[in-house]
UniProtKB/TrEMBL annotation:
This is Glycosyltransferase, exosortase A system-associated. It comes from the Bacteria. GO terms for molecular function: hexosyltransferase activity. It holds the Pfam family Glyco_trans_1_4. PANTHER family: SULFOQUINOVOSYL TRANSFERASE SQD2.
Length: 407
């Protein structure tokens, strides 16, 4: 049985879209017969958890930790992070010999994995979930074209060029890499998927929760996710008074824009129909999905949203909910307008309002659209199927390295 080591920015027990994708990959690979483990760098500390042991088991998955502190001004600190993680990977191989390194973005992880792979003579797969320079622009911590933006992009290009194979989560990222000169044959698409064990059996509407939130008997538009500026939630709140239909808006989650969005909603003429509930645990989120008639995802148009596919619309489809989303590139890869969901113009509250009104006015088509969306997720976007996209890459690379060592 071959062993795969996943090199990660952060992992369970922390909760994020990043850790949920990692959990899904590792659980599906273990079920398929691979022996898997993960290792995190020192940035696990920055995300709110200070590891106190070199190894931790969470939800049946094994994660190794890079212990110790790294300090210094940027970029010296980052180079020390890379060195610490590379050393930890090599040390782990002496205790748990693995056959392949699968590093997940950002590029700092890829650089550490590349160093370790060279020292160990093992193959490296580098997976890009988003271009982190674009993510920094999207969440307001960076600006396009800045020195940091260009450096991050250059580091990513270096890792991509030196990895044995590259995986991306969508066509947008692949096309961008091909435009940089990466051979298409080097790139595998492993799209975002849904763990149908978690989201495949939607519960009935939670009447007690509906009563608690004042939503009994109401039509509900929902947003469940992170409150970043690029998500376009200010446009969603601005849409509410433009709608002819008297719907309520349920906002579940949190993030940097939360206070500004709460203030915007209080000033809205529809303030009494906009409900914020804050963050909820992953185990509780299905209760909130059960109250929502349709999920709205109004992402703003920018490089990040055009290139990257989100996970939340797929989870909503698996939950049997209608999905309406802006027509950015990442959404167009997931949603067929008028078939599995509805698309509206990005950055345009009036067009969003018109699209949502049309959905509420045509309830006879809801069941068929929900069924088509669930069928799409089950057949094309479940982790139980997506995970096999890695298999031929793994087998080829492990075999090639074994032959090279024998020679």
């Amino acid at each position: 049985m071959s062993r795969i080591l996943h090199i990660l920015d952060h992992s369970l027990p922390l909760h994020s879209g990043y850790t949920f994708r990692t959990r899904a990959i590792m659980k599906a690979q273990a079920a398929a017969g691979w022996e898997v483990a993960g290792i995190t760098g020192v940035r696990q500390y920055q995300h709110g958890q200070v590891p106190d042991a070199v190894q931790e088991t969470v939800e049946g998955l094994t994660f190794h930790r890079t212990l110790g502190e790294v300090s210094g001004p940027s970029p010296l600190r980052e180079w020390r992070e890379i060195a610490a993680l590379a050393d930890a990977i090599v040390a782990l191989h002496a205790r748990w010999p693995f056959d392949l390194l699968h590093a997940h973005s950002p590029a700092l992880n890829g650089l550490a994995a590349f160093r370790a792979a060279q020292r160990l003579g093992l193959p490296l797969v580098y997976e890009i979930r988003a271009f982190w320079e674009d993510a920094a622009v999207g969440n307001g911590t960076g600006s396009e074209g800045s020195a940091k933006y260009r450096l991050t992009r250059a580091l990513e290009n270096y890792v991509v060029n030196h990895a044995d194979a590259v995986a991306v989560i969508c066509e947008g990222l692949k096309n961008d890499l091909v435009g940089r000169g990466v051979p298409p044959s080097k790139i595998t698409i492993s799209p975002n998927g849904v763990d149908l064990e978690l989201f495949g059996s939607p519960p009935p509407a939670d009447s007690a929760l509906a009563a608690q939130l004042g939503l009994t008997g109401k039509d509900v538009i929902g947003y469940i996710g992170s409150f970043y500026d690029y998500e376009g939630l200010d446009d969603l709140i601005a849409t509410m008074p433009l709608m002819a239909h008297d719907a309520h808006l349920l906002m579940v989650g949190g993030g940097p824009m939360e206070q500004a969005l709460r203030a915007q909603s209080l000033a809205s003429p529809c303030a009494d129909r906009i409900h914020f509930v804050g963050r909820v645990s992953h185990e509780e989120v299905e209760r909130y999905y059960s109250l929502v008639d349709l999920l709205a995802y109004p992402r703003k148009k920018m490089r990040l949203t055009d290139l990257v596919t989100p996970l939340k619309p797929l989870e909503a489809m698996a939950q049997g909910r209608l999905v309406a989303a802006s027509d950015v590139g990442g959404h167009r890869e997931l949603i067929r307008d008028g078939d599995t969901g509805t698309l509206f113009a990005a950055d345009d509250p009036a067009d969003m309002a018109a699209a949502l009104d049309r959905l509420f006015a045509n309830r006879t088509g809801w069941d068929a659209m929900r069924d088509r969306a669930r069928h799409y997720v089950q057949n094309e976007r479940s982790w139980q199927k997506n995970i096999y996209r890695y298999d031929p890459v793994y087998h080829l690379l492990i075999g090639d390295k074994a032959i090279a060592r024998a020679a």
